[in-house]
Each structure stands twice: as structure tokens, then as C-alpha cells.
Write a structure and sequence with these properties.
134 residues; mainly alpha; two-stranded antiparallel sheet; 3 helices
Amino acid sequence: MLITAVQDGQMSAGYVTTVVLTGLIVVFIGLALLITFVYLIGKFFKLTGNKKKNREPVKSDINTAETPEPSQNPSEPLIEDGISEETVAVITSAVLAFSPDLKVTGIKKAAVKPKSSRRTAWGEKGVNESTSAF
């Protein structure tokens, strides 16, 4: 004899309760397994990370005479050719934002070149259509 949970288009309260509790139990068991997995992975990486710290430093054969001398003025940034002043300013501000020990001692205003705001004919037509009255 087959017992059906649906009678006359209605599900019985016992069937609904069983399905809901089974779903909740499966979800929480899955969550517990996921938390355990992440915890064990963290422990594994801590153990493997400590082994690398215990190794002796590798001696390099690089000639230190080839490295450039730092400038006499430590506040003067070293800027390579081909990097714009805007890029240097953005990188400097990002470093200062995340370094609580560093402080800004002086700000030099750079000349800002205005970009041309001329649009092509297609761009003008798009602006006119978008902003025209209904």
C-alpha cells in the first residue's frame, strides 16, 4: 500500500514539517562541514608557512654596485621616464592612505591640462536626443 502525502490537492502538516526539518538539517550540516574545511585549510597553510620562515636566507650573487644610489634628498621621489606626474600622484596618495606612519609634509600643485570636451557629431546628436523635452 502506497502512502501519499498529498490528499485532495493539500499536503499534510506532517509531510511539510518533515520536509522543512530535513532541509534545515541538511543546510546546517553542510555549513558545519564548510566551516570545518576552511578551518583545516587555514591550519594547513599556517603550518606550511612556518616551514618557509625557518629556512636560511638565500645568498644572491647580485653585484650591489649596480644598484642606483638613493638621492641625497629623501623627500624627493624617484620618477622613471615615461610615467606621468598624475600617475605618480595617484600612487603616492594610495601609499599614504594605507600607511599610518607616513605623513604629508608638502603639496605641490601640478598644472592640470584640460581635456577637450568636443564631441563628435554622433555624440552631440546623442546628447541632444537624451536631453530634449518630451
